[in-house]
Amino acid sequence: MMETKEKVVYPRYAVIRLRGIPTTPRDIATTLHLLRLRRKFTMVVVPGTPSIIGMIQKVNDWVTWGEIDADTLAEVLKKRGRIVGDKPLTLEYLQKWGWQSFEEVALAYITGEIDSLSCRKVRVREGQRPPCIPYLKPFFRLHPPRGGLNSVKLHFSVGGDLGYRGPLINDLIRRML
User: Fold this and answer.
1) Is position 160 within any domain?
2) Domain interval for residue 27
3) 58 and 145 together in one domain
4) Which of 3, 106, 109, 131 has the smallest CB count inside 10 Å?
5) Best CA proximity match to 66, nearest among 49, 37, 45
6) Rounded CA gap, 131 and 105, in Å?
7) Which of 134, 151, 166 is the last residue of a domain?
């Protein structure tokens, strides 16, 4: 008898780079590059797999991270989402690929219905929608936060801005849109 494996749905984390490029050790720079955090104030949304969590913990002194909710992700997609060619992600583009709204895409990603937000072009049959948003850039360029940061040298638990901040990451993201 074959048992069907249930799909494991990992939590989705938003990771924002807060510190710049100079004096970054090579191994940290490589890990940031693999996470697609190549510039200050860029954000990626990643699943919380053990390997990704290990990478985030390695660069913990350069980033802040926490669980993103569907409303914040929909807002980020709407305001800061870009497709290849640096064109804005529009509702018409989503509807072309079978999605009805930004909220629908965000909820599908957070709940694990789709595994990735962005992908290269995929072949789909007529009437089906792809398991991602084709040609979406896998990172989001954000503004510096309104009201500023406390400290990019201290961790969040001691009054700074670096490291794990849990669901409070959503407040920071809204300040950076």
Assistant:
1) yes
2) 12-69+140-176
3) yes
4) 3
5) 45
6) 10
7) 134
**8-state DSSP, 8:** P
Please give the angle made by the CA atoms of 88, 90 and 94, to the nearest 5 degrees: 125
Contacts of 160 (CB under 8 A, 6+ apart): 150, 151, 152, 153, 154
Mean pLDDT by groups of 10 residues along the chain of 177 residues:
71 94 90 94 94 96 95 95 92 88 92 85 71 88 94 92 94 95
| 78 within domain boundaries | no
Q: Which residue has the tokens 């398991």?
A: 131
- Give the helix/strand (H/E) hosting 67: strand 63-67
- Residue 44 is predicted with a pLDDT of 96
What pLDDT digit, counting tens, does each position of 26-73 carry? Answer: 999 999 999 999 999 999 999 999 999 999 999 999 999 999 999 999
3-state secondary structure of 109: helix
Residue 24 sits in a domain whose CATH number is 3.30.1390.20
Residues 6+ apart with CB under 8 A from 59: 28, 31, 32, 35, 37
Helix, strand or coil, per DSSP, at residue 46: strand
Backbone dihedral angles phi then psi of residue 45, each to the nearest 5 degrees: -115, 120
For residue 144, give Cα distances in angstroms to 107, 176, 177.
26, 6, 9
Residue in the block written with tokens 């990735």: 116
18 and 65: one domain? yes
